[in-house]
Amino acid sequence: MSALSETLRADQTRVERALDARLPTSAAPPARLHEAMRYATLNGGKRVRAALVYAAGAALGAPPSALDVPACAVELIHAYSLVHDDLPCMDDDDLRRGRPTCHKAYDEATALLVGDALQTLAFQLLAADPDLNIAAGQRLKMIEVLAQATGSLGMAGGQAIDLAVVGTSLGLAELEDMHRRKTGALIRASVHLGALASPAADEKSLQALDAYGRAVGLAFQIVDDILDVEGETATLGKQTGADEARGKPTYPALLGLSAARERARALLAAALESLAPLGDNGRLLAAIAEFIVTRKV
């Protein structure tokens, strides 16, 4: 196992443990809702967003214990977004991470409430979790960053555009704007939250990390589009070919597979270049960027 694989595995274990401790127990009423929240959140996944929180914080000297809460917050937002994206009124998916989607395992109304509850829990943790031992101003900034990434100017807005353009053609600039919102905004916020957990964060390092987050966030979506064409359902844990079947604009559909891969590599180069001001402290972030662009799942 490579050093990066070991680090990612350790981050997965750490954030799973932190999430398990912060999610309501399935025994607490309303039991079915709490059980479904845990089903939707504690079901594996790459935990790339949490890994980016840990790596960005570590690059600026923050210990892992200072990063658990923002790592949980971004994973709760991500879990909520997947639950809602899978609903029949959205993408109508039956499979997520190799298991029935939340609305299939429970029901549509429960899945809707699961997403609502996970989203609010994320902000509750940033506002009040005692393990996040930072100044009130830093907490407020984290809440602002995550809210902007999640709302109409970020993830929700990207999803709205995605639904509106099914069956139409987009230019490259329009496609990138959609994906910078829908997928890239939360990845960018993950990097930002990790940096904000460190007292060593300054304007220069924040700008460098923000440029990195923007590039990596878009590259992630391009690779997702490529895997939807080339991947296998059993490997990815979700149905492949769904974007083409629904008539969604994607990078391979617009540019072709070869040009889409080239765009992802160009974004990787931009991400690596942005880390230069961090020196050796950016090494883990660089490795994660390379993993994101070369992954097969």
UniProtKB/TrEMBL annotation:
Record's GO cellular component terms: cytoplasm
SUPFAM superfamilies per record: Terpenoid synthases (SSF48576)
Gene3D superfamilies with a match to the protein in the record: Farnesyl Diphosphate Synthase
Cofactor(s) the record lists: Mg(2+)
Listed InterPro entries: Isoprenoid_synthase_dom_sf, Polyprenyl_synt, Polyprenyl_synt_CS, Prenyl_diphosphate_synthase
Keywords, alphabetical: Isoprene biosynthesis, Magnesium, Metal-binding, Transferase
GO process terms (BP): terpenoid biosynthetic process
Gene Ontology MF term list: metal ion binding; prenyltransferase activity
Similarity field: Belongs to the FPP/GGPP synthase family.
NCBIfam families in UniProt: FPPsyn (NF045485), PRK10581.1 (NF007877)
The protein, known as: Geranyl transferase
